Amino acid sequence: MVNTPTHTILALAALSKKGDRKRNLAVLLGSLIPDLAIFLWAPYQSIVNGVSGAAMWQELYFQAPMQNLIAWFNSIPIYVALGVLGFAGRSKTWGKLLLFFSLAALIHMATDMPVHADDAYRHLWPLTDWRFFSPLSYWDVDHHSRWVSSFEALLAFGCIAMLWQRFEMRWSRIMLSLLSLFYLLILFAPLIQRLVVPLFID
Ligand SMILES: [Zn+2]
């Protein structure tokens, strides 16, 4: 997971190219696909099955069906295989797009692995069920999430600056501005919390 936009702007900063729409779209999709399982699963559980948020994230999420779905979408071997296939066919459009799609997904894996502690994924599935339990977490304060979030926001600002220079269309600049606001909030959330929350508590 991580904040999904971080995966996307990182992948776009590394792999996108001015004017190459198809390639940029492949990078965008590849950066999003690993989190897609979660995005589809969560609304399905709450809207269709009426599961509460707590039951969803503390129980169902850790049970076999969901863990297997996540394993499929976050498997390094699968994306490497797709990437090799794309590389072999890189002289054709489908090959090039598959290659960039897989590379973007692999960047997602590379940025997920260091920041998943108790909720580590089986990134090498189906070869092995091994999980890397990182000492760092992107959300868990007990695993230094404050520092991870600050680093994430700074990394994001770097990527946003690169993309700002690369893409001059108005809509992309609007998107990048909104993203900057989002990361400013992440960066200053602890401070805002400390200043604002006491105003409402006696
Ligand atoms: Zn992810």
- The tally of strands reads 0
**Mean model confidence by pLDDT:** 89
| Spatial separation of the terminal alpha carbons | 36 Å
User: In terms of structural class, how would the helical and strand content be classed?
Assistant: mainly alpha
Multimeric state? single chain
The biggest sheet, with number of strands, parallel, antiparallel or mixed sense and barrel status, is: none
| Shape type | globular
Strand percentage, roughly? under 5%
What would you report as the Rg, rounded to the nearest angstrom? 18 Å
Describe this structure in words.
The chain has 202 residues and is mostly helical. It has a domain at 4-140. It is 68% helix and 0% strand. α1 (4-15) runs antiparallel to α2. The longest helix is centred in the N-terminal third of the chain and has 28 residues, at 21-48. 25% of the residues are buried. The model has no long low-confidence stretch (mean pLDDT 89). Bound molecules: zinc ion. Zinc ion is lined by residues 1-2, 34-35, 108, 112.
Which properties best describe this structure?
globular, 202 residues, binds zinc ion, 0% strand, mainly alpha
Topology of this protein?
Blueprint: H1 4-15, H2 21-48, H3 53-58, H4 64-73, H5 76-88, H6 93-112, H7 145-166, H8 170-196
Helix pairs in contact: 1-2, 1-6, 1-7, 2-4, 2-6, 5-6, 7-8
